[in-house]
Structure formats: C-alpha cells, structure tokens
Design goal:
- By secondary structure, this protein is mostly helical.
- Among the domains are: 45-75 and 84-169 and 212-251, Methane Monooxygenase Hydroxylase, Chain G, domain 1, CATH 1.20.58; 260-307.
- The protein has eight helices and no strands.
- It comes from Paramuricea clavata.
C-alpha cells in the first residue's frame, strides 16, 4: 500500500505550522527578547537528513513498482519461451532492496540516537519523534511491498517446478506407453487367430509401477505441503498488513491532534504577546500619571509655602 500521499500530508501540516510560527514572530519583533527564542533558522540538519531518508525510501518504492511485473512473472518462459528478467537479475534486486532497507533503517536509528542525545525543548523533541515514527511507517510500507513481491515470486517458482515435474512425468509415462505399443504380442502358432494370447504384466513391471506411483505421490504431497506453507505465509502477511493499516490510522489521528495542539499553541503565543504589549503600555501610562501627581503635589506645596 502506497503511503506517499499520507507522508506529503504530514509534511504539508508541519510546513503550515512553521509558517504560522514565523508570522507570529514577525508581528511580535519588539517582544522577541522576552520570549528568548531565535526562529530565523527553519531548516535544520535533522530536517535535511529526514528528508533524505524519505527520498531514499520513495526511490526504493518506485524501483520496486517499476520492476514489479517482470520480477513476479517467474513463469513467463513456460508459455512463451522468453522472460524479460532472469533469475540472477531477480536475486540482484533482492540483494539491492535488502541493502537499501538496512541502510534506511540504520539512518532512522541514527536520527533517533541524535534526538535522544541532543538537549532540545520538549516540543521540538516530540515533533522529531513524530517525524521519525512517520518515516518508520513509510519504510515498513516499502518493506511490506517488497515482502509481498518476494512471496508471490516464491509461490510462482514453486508452481513452475510442480508443472515442470508433472510434464516430465507425463513424458516418461507416454514414452513407456509407446514402447509397450511398439512391442508386438507374440501368438501361439498351434492356436487359430480367434484365440489371442492374453498379455499380463510381470511382477517386476508391477513393482516398478508401484515404486513410480509411490514416488509421484510423495512428490505431490511435498508440493502440497510447500503450497500450504506459502499460503500460510501470505495469510500472515495479510494480517500484518491489516495491523499496519490500523496503526497508520491511529498515527494519522495522533498527527492531526498534534497539529491542532500546535495551532492552538501558536494562537496562545500571539495572545500572550498582545497581552504583554498591553501590559507594557498600561505600566507606562500608570507611571506617567504618578509622575504628574507628584509634580502637582510639589507645585502645590511650593505655592502654599509662598502664600504663607
């Protein structure tokens, strides 16, 4: 299941929040020293590395989807005699995909260690943890896509081997039948043409046929067991996919809640800045009135002293 649209929506929400915080800082330049924060630097090293990981996972998904048809079409040569991708190329894709997944997982773990080791504010730490969780979900979606393709490939390879064995057994059986038909049945010259000699299988031939039937039966049971195992794995993958979908929906709700909380926090910061400005203005006017009162009292005392 493709999660690119979900990740873009998360990035858009984070960008909207950053723009709201930036506009709040522009409207409250005179009180920026009171808040004690510098928001001029929007792009951080963490953001660049997270964006790089997201781009790498997107490239992996695009690569898997681009070669999906040729990768899982492992039985095309049975019908047409030509395949667009060899088994060696499929093995190389498996190796490259596994290396790519390990690299992205290591990068995410490195970012996690950096978030834990760095001493940032609680809001920044929570935001980065949410970003890393979204990246993990995105990487798990790519891993699920690769696992499904590999499971389909293995199932089709097993089906191909089963068909090849059946074709080989049919050829052997038809060869024995033709050989038996080519051998003429000798008749007894003392009898006339009406009474033919009855043909019976020898004990050696019966034993050979019994062993052959037992071998074919064992092979069919083995193939049936392999197919059942693959079907069980596919069912397990489907269950895991369902669990992942539920977790992604829960994460979407959590991200929406975090976004709403961030917007409310931004509005509260704006209201706080306005209240601070009003308090500063009120304090200034109050000081002016006190100074005016003291001056008037001084003049009144001087006037009374002069009058007396």
């Amino acid at each position: 299941m493709d999660r690119t649209a979900f990740f873009k929506a998360c990035v858009k929400a984070i960008r909207t929040r950053n723009q709201a915080v930036k506009s709040s800082n522009l409207t409250s330049k005179d009180t920026s020293n009171i808040l004690g924060r510098n928001r001029s630097k929007v792009t951080t090293e963490f953001g660049l590395k997270a964006s790089e990981v997201k781009q790498n996972v997107s490239k992996l998904k695009e690569f898997l989807l681009k070669h999906r048809k040729d990768y899982i079409n492992a039985v095309s040569h049975v019908s047409s005699g030509v395949t667009a991708m060899s088994d060696r190329e499929r093995d190389q894709i498996d190796q490259d995909a596994q290396t790519f997944i390990r690299t992205c997982s290591t990068a995410i773990q490195s970012l996690k260690d950096g978030v834990v080791s760095q001493k940032n504010s609680e809001q920044v730490t929570e935001h980065r943890c949410n970003v890393l969780e979204v990246l993990e979900k995105y990487l798990k979606a790519a891993c699920k896509l690769y696992s499904e393709q590999r499971a389909i490939r293995v199932k089709r390879v097993v089906d191909k081997k089963r068909i090849s064995r059946l074709q080989c057994d049919n050829k052997k059986q038809s060869g024995r039948t033709m050989e038996m038909n080519d051998n003429p049945i000798t008749s007894n010259p003392t009898h006339d043409g009406i009474n033919d000699v009855e043909h019976e299988f020898t004990p050696e031939e019966l034993q050979t046929f019994e062993q052959e039937n037992k071998r074919i039966f064992d092979e069919m049971n083995s193939l049936a067991n392999e197919v059942r195992n693959i079907e069980g794995r596919v069912v397990e993958i489907a269950k895991l996919q369902e669990v992942f979908s539920e977790k992604v929906l829960e994460q979407t709700k959590q991200i929406d809640h975090v976004y709403e909380t961030t917007v409310k926090t931004t509005e509260n910061v704006k209201d706080g800045n306005e209240n601070i400005r009003e308090a500063i203005k009120n304090n200034a006017s109050f000081r002016v009135w006190i100074l005016f009162f003291l001056v008037m009292c001084s003049f009144s005392l001087l006037f009374l002293d002069w009058y007396s």
